[in-house]
Amino acid sequence: MSNDSKFTPKLIGMICNWCCYGGADLCGVSRFQYPPYIRLIRIMCSARVDMKHIFRAFSNGTDGMFIGGCHLSDCHYITHGNYYALNMVLVVKKIMEHMGINPKRLRIEWVSAGEGIRFANVMNEFGREIESLGPLGKGERISEINLEFKLNAITRLIPYIRVAINERLRLQFETMEEYEAFYGSEEFARLYDDLIGDKLAISQIMLLLRERSLSTREISEVLGLNQSDISRHLNNTARQGLVRYEEGRWRFALA
Amino acid sequence: MEKEAERIGDQLVRNLTGSNFVDVMVVGGGISGIQAALDLATAGFKVYLVDSAPTIGGHMAQLDKTFPTNDCSMCIESPKFVECDRHPNIEIITYTEVEKVEGKAGDFRVTLTKKPRYIYESKCTGCTVCAEYCPVVYPDKFNQGISKNKAIHIYFAQAIPLKPYIDESCLYLQDKTCTICQGVCQSDAIDFTQKAETIEVKVGAIILAPGYEPYDPKLRDEYHYGEFENVVTSMDFERLLCATGPYEGEIRRASDKKHPRKIAWIHCVGSRQVTPGGNSYCSAVCCTYTQKQVILAKDHDAETECTIFHNDIRSYGKDFERFYQRAENLPGVRFIRSYSSIVREDPETKNIMVRYSTADDGVKEEEFEMVVLSVGLTPPADFKRLAETFGIELNAHGFCKVNPVNPMETSRPGIFVSGAFQGPLDIPESVMTASGAASQCGELLSYRRGNLSKERIYPPERDISGEEPRVGVYVCHCGANIGRVVNVPSAVEYALTLPHVVHAEENLFICSSESAAMLAKDIQERGLNRVVVAACTPRTHEPLFRDTLREAGINQYCFDMANIREHCSWVHSKEQDAVNQKAKDIIRMAVARACHLEPLEEFDLPVDKRALVVGGGVAGMTCALSIANQGHDVYLLEKEAELGGAARKIHYTLEGLDVQAYLRDLIKKVYQNPLIHVYTNTVITEATGYVGNFTTRINSGGRDLEIKHGATVIATGAEVYKPTEYLYGKDDRVMTHLELEELIVKGNEKITGAECLVMIQCVGCRNEDRNYCSRICCSESIKNALKLKEINPGMDVYILFRDMRTYGFKEDYYREAAGKEVRFIRYEPDDQPQVEAAADEEGRPVLKVIVPDYILGKKLEINADIVALAAAVVPSADRKEISQFFKVTLGPDEFFQEAHAKLRPVDFGAEGVYMCGMAHYPKLIPETVSQAYGAAGRVLTLLSHDTFTASGSVCSVDEENCLSCGACIAACKYGAIEFYETPRGRKALVNPILCKGDGLCNSICPTGAIQLKHYTDQQLLNQIDARFKV
User: Fold this and answer.
1) What is the CATH number of domain B720-874?
2) B35-44, B359-368, B553-562, B702-711: the lowest-pLDDT one
3) pTM of the entire structure?
4) Using CA atoms in the order A202, A207, A211, A212, what is the torsion angle rounded to 10 degrees?
5) Please, are residues B236 and B146 in contact by the beta-carbon 8 Å criterion?
6) Which residues from A are below 8 Å from B972, CB to CB?
7) Which chain A residue has its CA at the smallest distance from B75's CA?
8) Which one in A81, B587, B908, B957 has a CA-CA gap of 20 to 30 Å to B443?
9) Residue B955, strand partner residues
10) Taking the alpha carbons of A172, A125, A114, B315 in that order, is the dihedral positive or negative?
11) What kind of fold does domain B954-1012 have according to CATH?
């Protein structure tokens, strides 16, 4: 895909009024140029960005979403909203990875109102990155239908994920490095699987089985998860009486 | 004395309310006068804003862009015109001269002469049919005479008032031969019998803001201005650059109307010259405005070759150094350090031959298609009459004579001066001094604040509930800023196809007061209930349009802006197709959101009348005094044991001020003021709250205290760089200037008896680590050099410099130093001086300073006894903490970042927080004082009100969906959300007074039950969907 020079990405950004929007304005005033395919939405604080907004943008087919806030510890509000935004974005990136969507399509950056040139640089970099990734879905080699299906599954889980973040995944570090280290760690991977990964897998399985009964292998192919995990989820949900095994057809169906 | 003034004041108010009696008269309606009028009017005073021109606006209105941000000049200034025009406490009186000023501070009687416009302003609709029919074409003054206008015309498109006037070229006025205009005027608004009208007014104080006059190069034949057609002044060039200029933003030359591809700028025209016709001072703004013009010329046509003939490049202001580098690094731009002269004009091509010399090539001649003279600033044309009329003294250059430690104070009490009549100043300084002069008027007239002022009254709001959205879309050309890149008519056509859009139209400048009036009328007539303006950034212009909606009787929240300038035309100027698509997308997204916008109610929050000033240096003390003198308690915090800050180490200034005596006096005034509460040895431990209601916890000498205040001023100063260069710290003969000054004052013989002393400039700044100029060091070195020469005339003093930046009147001292044989040797950053401990021929220990001499073309060795380093000014160590406490921003060099580089130089983006002094950027004492008064003036615009109106964009909870999980309550550090009992159990409830509208809780709420008004999920999701659904 990266060779397809004709690909013009569709990008969307949500940026905070106090810093990043100011940076984007200064960038304009200074006439620093960047690719014309992003559209920006102004919000008061990056913390206002919701998972729902992100997945809605991807459902709409955005090739990349940008979130811009004040530098960490420089949030205009005493709530330090940008830490919340970062936290949420890192969880969502993990979800994207899990779903087979390249997490690089979601980017969060800090740009102060004085950093016009930085805004242009970030836009140029992000633009180049998305160009190299190719269109959403195609770049990942996921079919359109499968992508839509996955995004549906995740959208249904959003209320639950918010609770999971509030209860278990709200972590307070000082620096970007610490955040990145944690969200790349085994510990987080385990937490994620426990709290979100398994639920998301099950949600997807249930959605799939709604259409027709499927074998473990078929489910595994669609979801991009290994068969043993799928079996585990199916056994658990079967125990809960949500699915049943169709003897002889080697398939699972909704109970 | 004060009592008596109060008594007289009261009596006057009683007797004269309703007549020609106001608090302050501001003379001069340029940016400085406008700012002064707005600050005073907002702070509870009634103001006359008087201008001799047919409109307010001044020279700033003529500029195309402003440095160093390249903001569109008219775009940032014209909203202020509208604000003045709409302000109930400002009366604009244009085309009027001041004839006579009698009386004294608190009680002036002023005689004004209103020149005849020959127009009934009340009858005129501003339709300009008269100008169409007028047969007389006459050089257009606004366009520097480059293009023509009619004898009857409106001064410029955004003029206030937007009424024509008839100038001296009118045929009727000359010999009564033509009255066409009268015939075509439908409103019968033209009256040739009008005579000059004399008006007597009474005012308590006067602010003089008459601005400057650009230097007239005709005074010196060598420039051939007016003789060679393609020699223009920089002011002419501003108009050529401008979309509203003579060629609609195309740079053309007079001789053949072709685009010049090879342009030269000549610096210091009329400045830094002691020969007849010139001025000895430096005009302070020309270096940087030239760089701006170069950048813009390249922007107009990337192929243009630009050559700048210059002396020192004086990039001494905030962010100027980067701006200089930006211009210098453009391809096809040459900065040539050389004297240059215009030799001749080619009779055929009308090209201009310029002679100059370089170290490498010697004397050369080169042909240019256009030459721009970077002309300096001179006093207003009628400065002598001005001085006589107002009874004020002038300085030797014809500018206003001011108190050296209070540049707003003239020689006559009650008359203050702001802006460039103080001396050459740039726009932010003109704005700062305007706010500062306003504050000093406030001190004088504090006793009668609020007596004459009125609150703004809006028409009642139309109830739009239940109505389908009826959206109006207004797409702005912004002159050429948008229009040249975006196809505006096609964007308008597109907008009309969008759902719920009932009207769309284009506009040249939607922010002009004429357009604003049109917009208000349009909203009413078309019954619009949602408005989208596709123009520039909401960060600067949203308040203006919201106000227009209020004028039209529509809730101000039913408005959205589509930013098709900063986020579109300016950043994709070379991508025609994509940029048009983007503009349409942005408009579609804004309309999608607008359809779901709801009317919101705002809240009045009480304002705590006390102020907190952080930092007890000259800035903090001056600011605290001015606030306290207007009746407000001030808490003044100082981290050291004593007040004084950096000034404690300074003993004298270039102008000869005894700094310590001044400081003692200032400290005494602070301690004697009963309203100022000084806390020394104090650190801040916590700061919370918001505009009007801050709470700051401090530890003062071990005691913990809590201070409540409505406004905050950051005056935390700066520090001196500790050099690692030139043996500093290794050899005690190497010292900083502050250390040198200390030793000079102490009469240290090693210093005063030195045979040779070398000063090295730019130590620790103008380099990769600190990419800025510390502004004050050149003056500091000249100051110490002159002092040393005074003490020991035989001493050899050398100053090794990169550019001598003695801007403004300080240039005279530079010349004096050169006259006293202080030797100036220039060095380049890639070939810096070297200092080593050595011995001279006689074996005497010296510091051997090796420096290249570009004139002699060899290395020069100087045996110095002492080396003084002009060490950089660096931001204060506690800047990060302070910025985090008060939620304010630091700039790229880590000085505090003002809300707007040009027009809000003492405000922060965060409301209720202001700054002054070196916390903002290095500056000299008088500049610090100006900004300190400026900050006080801004503080008073807040503290003079009992309430502050808080945004209606706050959160609210849909009880149905609230799970009472408490996540929002835990996250909201403002404590704005609480549980309360309902018949259906505990639910979250938002206190709108405490909610700050960040919307964090929205993304935490599992069910989306809590929503931030104006940024609801519905509004945002619609906007997101609209991005993709063409």
Assistant:
1) 3.50.50.60
2) B359-368
3) 0.84
4) 0
5) yes
6) 79
7) A29
8) B908
9) B1012
10) positive
11) Alpha-Beta Plaits (3.30.70)
